[in-house]
Task: inverse folding
């Protein structure tokens, strides 16, 4: 025996409202159409579904059991409609975002939190990676978007780039570091102290290499490497070590009395932090809403960081050797 699921839904509607007319109205159907359906269902099962003469209508034991199944179908249908509506409006869904570790931990995680204060039904899955890995994950649809700094090289035609923040690195040390008490700095000063190495694969590796070339330094005393952002910050704050970090990352620790900026110019990268997405992908309204939130948050952050940068009394030009001072 096969029972049409639509017939069970109509039975459940009549049972819920207590009448055929009311049940038909709830489903957006006519009363005669629902009456015919119930008659067909009774003939199909060979048993009465309603107790004769009862008002409001009352189900027989068999009718009650079938109505329970119909109610489950009706609730599932309503839930499906709600899911479609919330997906299309961007109020629910899942977003998979990957990015370079230090930016994700220091900056993006806070923006995810502020986003979900407004959009509590959207799941955000965060992952880490550098540029080549992130592009591969975008290509294979493992992530919806990547937040990473890129250089002047153009992306492939399959990708779009939304710029967020120009690249800007700073020399970082502990609050109270001896370098902060010097009026002028020599190359010999920074060579004296140990350094923290950037994470392997990070763009900061190339940045540090360019700084060494520009300043004519053959090597530095690397004493710590491979740490997460928090471990690097804690290490720098507890030692006399130096580290190159993005200004926005250092700014996120402002007010915590841990790390400070050594106010000297260093060679800057020709990169821009931004959002990379695929041009052709499945629609994800929640993803678009999240991207708009990140773009707006970075507009505010950029203004604040620029104000902070102007408040710092920077040294005149890069480090100079002792003989040129």
Result:
């Amino acid at each position: 025996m096969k029972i049409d699921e639509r017939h069970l839904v109509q039975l459940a509607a009549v049972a819920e409202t207590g009448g055929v007319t009311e049940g038909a109205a709830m489903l957006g159907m006519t009363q005669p159409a629902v009456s015919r359906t119930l008659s067909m269902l009774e003939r199909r099962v060979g048993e009465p579904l309603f107790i004769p003469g009862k008002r409001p209508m009352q189900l027989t034991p068999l009718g009650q059991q079938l109505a329970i199944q119909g109610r489950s179908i009706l609730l599932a249908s309503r839930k499906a409609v709600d899911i479609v509506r919330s997906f299309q409006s961007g109020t629910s869904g899942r977003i998979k975002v990957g990015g370079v570790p230090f930016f994700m931990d220091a900056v993006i995680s806070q923006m995810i939190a502020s986003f979900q204060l407004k959009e509590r039904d959207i799941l955000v899955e965060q992952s880490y990676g550098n540029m080549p890995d992130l592009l591969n994950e975008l290509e294979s649809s493992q992530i919806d978007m990547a937040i990473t700094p890129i250089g002047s090289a153009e992306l492939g035609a399959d990708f779009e780039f939304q710029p967020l923040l120009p690249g800007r690195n700073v020399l970082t040390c502990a609050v109270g570091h001896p370098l902060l008490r010097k009026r002028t700095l020599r190359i010999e000063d920074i060579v004296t102290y140990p350094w923290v190495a950037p994470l392997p694969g990070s763009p900061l590796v190339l940045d540090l290499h360019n700084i060494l070339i520009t300043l004519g330094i053959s090597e530095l005393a690397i004493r710590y490497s491979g740490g997460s952002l928090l471990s690097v910050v804690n290490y720098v704050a507890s030692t006399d070590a130096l580290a190159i970090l993005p200004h926005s990352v250092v700014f996120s620790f402002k007010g915590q009395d841990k790390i400070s900026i050594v106010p000297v110019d260093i060679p800057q990268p020709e990169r821009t932090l931004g959002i990379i997405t695929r041009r052709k992908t499945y629609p994800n309204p929640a993803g678009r809403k999240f991207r708009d939130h990140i773009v707006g948050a970075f507009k505010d952050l950029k203004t604040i960081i620029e104000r902070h940068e102007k408040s710092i009394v920077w040294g005149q030009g890069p480090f100079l050797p002792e003989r040129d001072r």
Remarks:
- The beta strands are 93-99, 122-128, 145-150, 159-166, 169-174, 195-196, 222-224, 243-246, 259-262, 272-278.
- The chain has three domains: 5-89, 93-166+272-309, 169-270+314-324.
- The chain has eleven helices and ten strands.
